[in-house]
User: Fold this.
Amino acid sequence: MEDLFGGQELDRDVWLPYYLPHWSSREASAATYRVRGGELTLSIPPEQGLWCEGTHAEPLRVSAVQSASFSGPVGSPVGGQPFREGLLVATEEPGFFGYTPLYGHVEVRARGIVTPRSMVAFWMSGTEDKPQHSGEICVMEIFGSSVRDGSCEVGMGLHRFRDPGLTEDWAAPRLDIDVAEFHTYGVDWAPGSLSFTVDGEVVKRVGQSPNYPMQLMLAVFDFPAKGGPAAVPELIVSHVRGD
Assistant:
């Protein structure tokens, strides 16, 4: 898969412009985005509402696209990436599997406009067709609060979640990169290993890996409880590749 974001429309055969809509609704989880000039821009304007208001413990606003989605019926606990115990499906989500790789190289070229109350991220998550298929490969996670002096902490690694076959292995090394400039964040995913790269250089290795298909997630987040002005955070993406 290679998406260079040509034209002015999101490729809806690959992406859904909603963030985990089964825990709320498509209307309440819709991303603010545009596709123009070979770039996908995800943003959170001041008027955008909270995601899962009253259900998510911390006030959260988010604009995201994801390459797969499905859930059980309303009232079921079956759904990807639950954020607390006892969470039940609010809106049944039909099965959509636009791009769900199993192994290979996956990368994104992106830049972020962030403040101390926002973050940008690119990760891969099990589709949770079975509860244990829930591991996460975090390729890039950058909080605006970590940005200083032309450097930032780049979160990367493996999250276990509900997969008993995995062990948590995650870190956020400080790298001398400017998040506001384009960089390529990637992972080489093979049976039993993960190699995380930034601009082609290996930054972290993990000696294990999920062994089931995963969906891609691109998102920008805003955390209103952190205070400060509601500036507009953005994640700008020029390509996503998987092979």
